[in-house]
Model the fold of this input.
Amino acid sequence: MLRIITQQADVRAELQRICDRTHDEQVLHKQATVREVLQAVKRQGDQAVLHYTAEFDKQSLNAEELRVTGSELDAAYQQVSKELLGAIRLACRQIEAFHRQRVPKSWVHFGDDDVVLGKRYNPVDRAGLYVPGGRAAYPSTVLMNAIPAVVAGVPRIVMVTPPRSGKSIEPAVLVAAQEAGVQEIYRVGGAQAIGALAYGTQTIPKVDVITGPGNIYVTLAKQLVYGTVGIDSLAGPSEVLIIADETANPVHVAADLLAQAEHDPMAAAILLTTDPALAKNVQVAVERQLIDHPRRLDTEKAIAHYGLIVIVESLQAAAELSNEFAPEHLELEIEDPWALLPQIRHAGAIFLGYSTPEAVGDYLAGPNHTLPTSGAARYASALSVETFLKHSSIIQYSQTALEKVAGAIDILATSEGLPSHADSVRRRVQKED
Done:
């Protein structure tokens, strides 16, 4: 049952426990396994990838079967309904429209004395997209990862996703990839897929940045290869925090909590409310909606271990607790969400009002659903076009401009004990005898 806490002394400890759920001893033990997998892939390439795919995914492949063929991509369109294809295309348009508004532009500024300063943006050469496939198929994750990379102008986009029984890939995932502009797809998942993208194998190319969510093994693998490649974030188990007042509909709030809990047994579902009656009604509604839930076992585990209802004194107190937790998804199901919004500082995505369930953002509102979790929203942001771009500074000084600052550079370089730094400027401004 979803617990209700009224003792404020217990609230922060409980929220911290939930936030730290990916740092327990069991998780640390898994890190050793992931490290072993990564080292094997680095040394043995395809051989290790195929070995671990057989061991973990129970699918025996050869190297030629790793890449999804063109005929498989074509056939996928015959295996999805017209309604699903239409929904995928609508989501594509919405997501692309949002991300095209956020493309950074290169710029230069021409200052006094012919000083030119600027910033130049370029996409990475190769991007690797991870699409999970263990518990369900996620065409929406394909779109959320691929479209920003396409908009950024990445020349080569590589997608990996675990094979299903019979070595197949979910047709909706293949269709979504093609609709988003991705044609290079490999049937491999888990830590071995991250290792293949990070180090390259005989079949799978090394990439520059890896994005996309996955299970704890994928997350740990991304953490360990960071530095060899860039990553978007360490996306852990999903989480939602809802702030609700007495005007919220308890049935809707319960459905939104379960929408996160059904993702994973480690998913977190938290309600902060000023109304004790709403708290009780939500608790009852959750139990009722769980009765015939198709994913009841995993959802009940998440609710039991990482579900929580907290009764707070005020919406301001709720905002403070939310900022400390820094949730992946934050819903403001209150009478005036815009009034509370200025007090919200840390959240991956914020959903305002009664008619904006988090599922809208998961699928086609436009903003990305690959978001920071486990408190990372205090310093990180959603996956975006910028994830696939890097910038170079542009600097040009004229002789006049250099002469004006040479003395200051000399003083700074000398203070740091770097005489050649100072000399490189001094030799350019000294008058020749």
Observations:
- The longest helix spans residues 25-44.
- Residues 212 and 353 are 28 Å apart (CA to CA).
- The longest strand covers residues 116-123.
